[in-house]
Amino acid sequence: MDSSDATLIFIVLVAALVMFSVSFREEYQAGLARKLAVRSGLAPTVEQLPLLQEKIGRRQRGAVVGALVGGLLAWFFTADDASADRIFILAGALAAGGGVGIAITALFLANRRPADAVTYARSTSVSLADYSAPSDRHLVRGLVALGAIAAAVTAVMRPDHTVPPLTLGLTIAAVAALVFFEITARQIVALGQPAGSVTELVYNDAIRAGYVFDLLVAPLTIGTFAVLLGLTDIVTSLGEPVVEALRPWTPLALLAIIIVSAIRAARSDSGWHYLYRLWPDIAARADGELAVVTEDER
Amino acid sequence: MLSIDPLSATPPFEQLRMQLLRQVHAGDLVPGAKLPTVRRLAQDLALAPNTVARTYRELEVAGIIETRGRNGTFVRASENAAEHEAQLAARAFADRIHQLGIPRDTALAFATAALY
Asked: Is there a single domain that holds both residue B71 and residue B84?
């Protein structure tokens, strides 16, 4: 281990420890609950706040532990790799580990069943499409498919008909992360939602939609890396003149992608998707503001 | 929305059956609407799976719902062809209204006005 690696690991461990510790603090959880409220369109209620904070704290701890395990495993297996490309593997492993941590938290820390109290449930079946906006899922599926196509085109264009190991590895990892999302998100949606009130059920849906959205981060991140590397390999295999011709435009293209992504993220109301689908009356009442849930919801 | 009161004098099976019946007759559950799986509804309402299964069975015998193999359990459509078509149109209307985020009362007012 060289000194730069030791410094990096120290920083990551301290950051993980801090994030893990603060997730137990009530003020920090309240801050996260407010963020979730804005994202999901619901105003936190006094009764639901403790439960909401507890679940948010759990989710953060799951993500931190998962990301840490993923990052350390990637660091261990790439310890001999001194190339700059290693950052893609480490970042991808952090995202994938975080996703696995969140999935475990969602799947194995189910809701408590209210004892001897009135229980509520919706009378219709729900599916993944109720919790995740189609645009989000199509974007991720499209990115992963584009990465796979880029890798295939690279193999065709290169004289030895091979794909560079890093591009191939990231493409396979992106497909695996997407498959993991598709299976795990459906399992989370299929889990029971014991609720002691309608309000609890609505907030439970908000948290569930948040879990599903978080699970998309890993395939999105790794898929983006796979596309970037795949396109770079294609351009490289076209020869030095093409590389030189495209070089001045690359930063502009990246900047355009970042700006378009930022605008899309800012204008997206995918966090409210579950409200439109499952609780349209609440969504209509919110009208751009956070909605207050009442026990009269149907 | 379904709710079960474990302290009620009415058995959970009857509470569930009556609520589902009421929702179908009131149009809250339209023909073609997919019901939760037995296991899922049992988990959600803290009931034994047998209780939910018995409710579904009785409603199926009464012609209110139907089981389509592994696809799940659905509210049964009317036998009348014209009514069946109207029910499908109503289902499509309801789906679109959900997508648009229009409140239920407003959507019903639109539909009522369109019928005159």
From this structure: no
The pLDDT tens digits of the residues spanning B56-84 come to 999 998 888 999 888 899 998 766 666 66
Rounded to two decimals, the ipTM of the complex is 0.73
Total domain count, chain B: 2
Q: What is the pTM of this model?
A: 0.80
pLDDT higher than 60, residue B97: yes
A88 Cβ contact partners less than 8 Å away, ≥ 6 residues apart: A166, A170, A225, A229
CB neighbourhood size of B52 (10 A): 24
The nearest CA of chain A is from the CA of B79 a distance in Å of 22
Residue B60 sits in the same domain as residue B104: no
Phi, psi dihedral angles at B3 (to 5 degrees): -145, 145
Are both B85 and B72 inside the same structural domain? no
Break chain A into its structural domains and give their ranges.
3-113+123-286
Q: Per the CB < 8 Å rule, is A123 touching B102?
A: no
3-state SS, residue B70: helix
Select the residue of A124, A276, A297 nearest B101 (Cβ to Cβ): A276
Taking residues B93-104, report their average pLDDT.
Answer: 84
| Smallest Cα distance from B4 to chain A, Å | 5
Reading the block at residue A217, the tokens are 């981060």
Q: Which residue segment(s) compose the domain that B110 sits in?
A: 78-116
- Helical ranges in chain A per DSSP H: 3-22, 26-40, 49-77, 86-108, 128-131, 134-157, 165-190, 198-215, 217-237, 240-246, 249-267, 273-278, 280-286
Closest CA to A105 of A191, A171, A179: A191
Q: pLDDT-based confidence at B2, cuts 50/70/90?
A: very high
Residue A121 region by backbone torsions, left for phi larger than 0, else alpha for psi between -120 and 50, else beta: beta
